[in-house]
Amino acid sequence: MTEQTFDAVIVGAGISGALIANELSEAGFSVLILEAGSQADNRQQYIDTYYAAEIKTPDAPYGIQDGSGGSKVQANPSAPHPGVPIDARWKDPNAYKTDPRYYFVQTGSVAFGSNYERIVGGTTQHWLGTCLRFMPQDFTTKTSFGFAVDWPIGYADLEPWYTEAESQLGVAGNVAADEAIGIEHTKPYPMEEVPVSYLDQYMGKKLNGKQVGGVTITVESTPQARNTVGYDNRPPCMGNTSCVPVCPIQAKYDATVHLNKATKMRLLGSGKSSVPAKLVTKAVVYKVDVGASTDQVTALHYKDWDGNDHKVSGKRYILAAHAIENPKVLMMSPWKNGKTVANSSGQVGKNLMDHICLVAWGKTADEPIYPFRGPLSTSGIPQYRGGATRKTRAAYRVEIGNEGWNWSAGAPQSNVMELVTPTGNVKPLFGTALRNQLNKECTHQVRIAMELEATPLQTSYIKPSETHMDRFGLPRPEVHYEIMGGAKDVTYAGTDGEYTVKGYVESNNVAQQLFEQADISWDTTVDASNSTPGVFIYNNTRYQYRGAGHVIGTHTMGADKSSSVVDSYQRSWDHSNLFIVGCGSFPTTGTANPTLTMAALALRTAKELCNDLSK
Amino acid sequence: MDTPTYYQNIKPLFSQYDRIKMMYFADLWDYKQVKAHAKTILLSLKPRMVDGKPDPAGWSELPEVHVMPLYTGPWPKSQVAIFESWIAAGCPEGEAPPAPPTPGPLVEGFLTLSRVLTGFDDLNDKVLAQTYINRLLAESNAAKNNQLEALLTAFSHNPQVLDADGNCVSSYSQYLALIQDITVLWYLSSIDGALGTPENNQYIQGLVWPAIDAHPMGFANTNEQFYWRYKPEGGDFTGLQIVVPRAAKK
C-alpha cells in the first residue's frame, strides 16, 4: 500500500476530469488523475480494432479481443463498461459471465439502453461531438412549465462558461440558428459551422418553412466540436463518417486533448509554468474515506489491475467518473448514521435519466440523397425543443443522421445480405442487377432521431449490486431504470407521470408528418418481442426507444441540501472538499445533448476550485 | 527505448490526415516509400521558423516538400528524435503485417467469375482475390470438398452464371450457396454477414461502399474538403477518390 498527497485528486480521465485537471495545472496546483481504464499506445490501434470488429458498436475500438479470431471485442473485466444491450440478455445478470458488456445488473421495468467507456478520454472517445447549449427555459422548467425542478443556476450564470467551453473544445456552429430559438451568445462560435450534408440540404428544401406539429420548422446546422479549420493543432474534419466510435484524425474533440495539455509542463504568460498533472491509469477507485469528526474527505482507495490496494490523499477530491460510477463509488463508501458518503439527502443514485430516442427511418421517393458520407450528423430541427407544450408533455430535439440506416437497421451490410441471401421465395441477386439495386436502396436512406426530455424519478436509480461482483469483488452497477414513476411493467397507460411518454408519442406523430412532407416513406419498425431492450406499451400501442448515451441525474445539483447532492458548483453539501461532477449533476435533462453543458459546469467548478485552493 | 522500427514506432506517427495530405509526395503508410524519402521527410519535420512560428509559406527549406500538414503543427522534439534515431539505425522495418498471399493458379478464373457476380468489371486485385480464395477455403462450408475448384471449372466451360435479371441460372443452382459466399465476401469482406475482417485492408476494400457512392465508414480516402456537401457524380464526392502518390507513379 502506498500513499501520496496532492492539491487535488480527480477520479476519471473523461471530459470533466480533463478540463478541471487542465485548469488546476495551469493555476499551479498539483493534480493526480486516477483512471480505471487504460490507453492505447496510439490512435491507430483503436482504428485497427474498429476496422476488424465484426459489429461496429460504439465501444468496438475500446474493449479487448475475446480471443475468437480477434474480431469480437469485449469489455475489459478489470474496468468493465456496459455495451448497448441488443437482446433479452439485458435482464439476465449472469449474461456478464459470457459477455462483460452486460455489465449492468438491470432490475427496472424497462431497459437502460446507453453505455459509456472506461478508458483514458472517457466517453468522448466515442461521442458524436454535438455541442448544443441548453435553452434558457431548460433551466427553469418548474417555474416556466410546472415540470420537475429548476436548476439552481440559470442560462445567464452559465453563458460565460458556455463561451469558454466552446473555445476550449473548439466548436463549429452558427450563432444565428441558436438565437432564432432564444439562445443568445455573447461571443460567436470559434469556427464556422460544419457544412451541412447533401442529405440535409434535401431535408431543408422539403421542410423549411413548413408547419409540422404546430410549429414552423427549419433545418439548421448543428453546433459540434468538430474542426472546420485547423484548430488547437488538430486538423479539419475530412468526413470519415465514424465520429462514433472513433475519429481517425482527432478533428473531433476528445478529452485526451486536455489530458495531454494537463500532463505536460507548459510555459504560461508572465514567466510562470504549469504544474504537470500526474495521470495514473488502471486505477479502479472503490472507496472514499471521510474523517470521523470533520466531515472532510481524507483519502481515496483504488485497486490496480493486479488487484493491489492503494490509498491517495489530497486537499480536494473530484469524482468525475461518470453518472453511473460516481454514485456507485459513493454508495460503496460508509459515512455515519448508517448513511454513505455525500448522501444525507438520500438522493445519491436517484433520478437516473437518459434522453430516450425515437429512431425513425425511411427512404426518399425519387431523389437519392447519398448518405454514409460526412460527419454522422450535421443538422437538426430545433423548433421542438421549447414552447408552451412543455406544460403537458416532454419537449425534444430532432437530429438528422448522415449514416442512412446504419444505426437503425445495420445498413449497408444488412442490405447486401437481404439481396444476396434473401429469405422465402425471393431470388438471390447478383452482378450488375445487385450493384444497381443496392445503390438504389442505400442512396435513398434517411434516419432521424427524436431525443426526448426525461422525467426525474425517485423510482429510477442506480446502486451497487449486493449480489453481482466484478473480477475484483467490486459491485457491478444495479441499474433500476424507469421512464415513468411507479411503473410495474411495460404497460404505462393509466399511471401518473406520463410527461415523457406523451412527448414520445407526439414525437412519433411528428416524425411521420416530417417524413410525409419530405416525400420519405415510413419504414420504421418496432421489434416484435417484448423482451427486446426499449420496447414498451402505452395505450395499447407498442413503441421502441434507444438510449442516447446521455446518462444524467444521479447526483443532482440544487439550491436545497435536503433534496440535492451537490450545489451549483458541484460541491457536495455534506463534504466541502468533495466535488461530484458530470452529467449526474443535472437536475433535468433539458433538450440538448449534454456534453457542452457538462463542460461548462466543469470549467465553472474548476474556477471555484482554484479560488478555494488559493485561500 | 529500443531501436525504433517502421511498423511499431514510425507508421503510427503519421495519421490518416498526414497521409492524405502528403500523398502527392509519398505514401507515408508504405515502408519502402518512407525509407526512400526518410531524409527529406525529416527535413520537413523540422520546420523553418519565422518569429518563433513555423513559416506558413512552407516549413522546409526544400522547394518541393513544403511541410508536413500545417494544421497538425510541428512535431514535438521527442517525436522528431524517434524519427532521427530510426534513420540512424538504418530505417529498420520491424515486424511487418503478415505478408499477403502469392496469387495462385485459381486467381484468374476467380477474378473473372467475381466480376460477373459482383457487377464490378474492374476487379483486378490478384492479391486480394487470393486472400479471399484462402478465406473461402477456410471459412465457407459451401467451398468444401473442392466445390470452389469445381465451380471455377464449370465457369470456364460455361460463363453464363446469371440470367438477364441477375439471378443464378438453374444449371448453376448446385453452386448457389458458394456464389452467395463469394459475392458477400467481395461486398462485405465477410462471409457470415458481419461487417468485419481479420485485417483492416479487407474491411476498407469492401465493394459495398463504392456500390452505394460512399466510402468505408472510418476511412474517407479523399482530399476534397467537405465533400459531403455535394451530390456524388461520376465517382466524385463519394469520399473515395484515391489520390495516387507521386512517388508511386515513378
Give an account of the 3D structure.
The complex is a heterodimer of chains A (615) and B (250). With 615 residues, chain A is an alpha/beta fold. Chain A has 13 helices and 23 strands. Chain A has helices spanning 15-26, 43-52, 141-145, 155-169, 175-179, 198-207, 256-262, 325-331, 406-409, 413-420, 431-442, 499-517, 595-614, and strands spanning 3-11, 31-34, 64-65, 73-74, 105-106, 172-173, 191-192, 211-212, 215-216, 220-221, 278-280, 283-290, 297-304, 309-319, 357-363, 377-381, 396-401, 445-452, 461-469, 475-480, 535-538, 541-544, 578-580. In chain A, the strands form seven sheets. In chain A, strands 1, 2, 11, 12, 13, 14 and 23 form a seven-stranded mixed sheet that branches. Chain A has a five-stranded antiparallel sheet with strand order 10-16-17-18-15, covered by helices on one side. A three-stranded mixed sheet of chain A has the order 5-20-19, covered by helices on one side. The longest helix of chain A has 20 residues, at 595-614. Chain B is an all-alpha fold and 250 residues long. Chain B folds into three domains: 6-88, no CATH class; 107-210, no CATH class; 213-250, no CATH class. Chain B is built from twelve helices and two strands. Chain B is elongated, with a radius of gyration of 23 Å.
